[in-house]
Design goal:
72% of the residues lie in helices and 0% in strands. It is mainly alpha-helical. It is globular and about 50 Å long.
Length: 301
């Protein structure tokens, strides 16, 4: 088995890590805006631990998709190193568990600097990461995949990142996390739109399968719009400045994703271009949101 750059890229999927990076950044910047300081080592530990858990979750997905026969030589996607590159299933599972070990060690440091209650929360998050594709009833095969992915990676991580910096939590923090939660959930929606036919044939019951292609794309468009309306609400009713309108710079990418997904009858390969635009939207929106929160602490508009 040749383990070159392309192999590690497909295995680790670094371009998907926006779902981990953005929530940590937003939660930490919002904490800085509230208290005026930032514990850099805690920020770094949280960033690495979150990425490690997400990569491990991707690897669990790789392993169980192979075990269940969902990944074949004809599968299209950003993973598939077992079927396409000859990676050993044992190697993939071992790497996932090793990353969980790293996240656990970093979690102990984070707890020692903040609260040991986070140890239970972190362990629960890691369990959900495993059950997302592992176990007899994988969450990713149910209609609740978007809710769990967005809820834990979006709202959950933002709240933890905020708490470890400030020592407290507010409903305002939850409110700020909502559009990030939605966008992370939509990353899964895009994946499921691409894989809808194959997933249905394998007995999965994702939200996209229940809605069908046309209504799934409509759902995607409505939830994108919801995120931008929510930002307007934060400005009008949450005391934020118009710096947060920087998130609107991501609208063209979101619109393009919807337009590319809209035609029915596309092959999974044809939908790849649309699928990658959703994490790109999340990255643009999340970075703009973090920048807006930072700028409004120094400049009032």
């Amino acid at each position: 088995m040749k383990r070159d750059f392309d192999f590690w890229w497909r295995l680790v999927r670094p371009h998907t890590l926006t779902a981990s990076l953005v929530p940590v950044l937003v939660g930490s910047i919002w904490a800085f805006a509230c208290i005026g300081t930032l514990h850099v080592s805690l920020f770094a530990a949280m960033l690495v631990a979150s990425c490690a858990i997400q990569i491990a979750t991707n690897l669990f997905n790789e392993y169980y998709d192979y075990v269940r026969g969902l990944d074949t030589k004809d599968s299209v996607g950003i993973g598939g190193t077992i079927v396409h590159d000859g990676a050993s299933p044992q190697f993939v599972m071992g790497l996932a568990l090793g990353l969980y070990g790293l996240a656990g060690l970093l979690g102990i440091y984070i707890c020692a600097c903040s609260s040991w209650w986070l140890l239970l929360i972190g362990a629960f998050c890691m369990l959900i990461g495993y059950l997302y594709t592992g176990g007899p009833f994988p969450i990713s095969a149910s209609p609740f995949g978007e809710l769990f992915a967005g809820g834990f990676l979006g709202t959950g991580v933002i709240c933890i990142a905020f708490f470890i910096q400030t020592g407290y939590l507010t409903w305002h923090t939850v409110a700020i996390s909502i559009p990030v939660m939605v966008l992370i959930g939509l990353i899964l929606t895009g994946n499921n739109i691409r894989d809808r036919v194959g997933d249905a044939a394998n007995g999965r019951h994702t939200l996209v399968i229940l809605l069908g292609h046309k209504r799934s794309v409509q759902f995607l468009a409505v939830m994108f719009a919801f995120c931008y309306v929510w930002i307007v609400g934060l400005i009008l009713f949450g005391g934020h400045s118009i710096w947060l309108l920087a998130t609107f710079l991501s609208i063209p990418t979101a619109r393009k994703a919807v337009e590319k997904f809209r035609p029915e009858g596309q092959t999974p390969q044809q939908m790849m271009a649309a699928m990658v635009l959703i994490p790109k939207t999340n990255t643009q929106f999340g970075l703009a949101l973090a920048l807006g929160l930072l700028l409004e602490t120094f400049f009032t508009l």
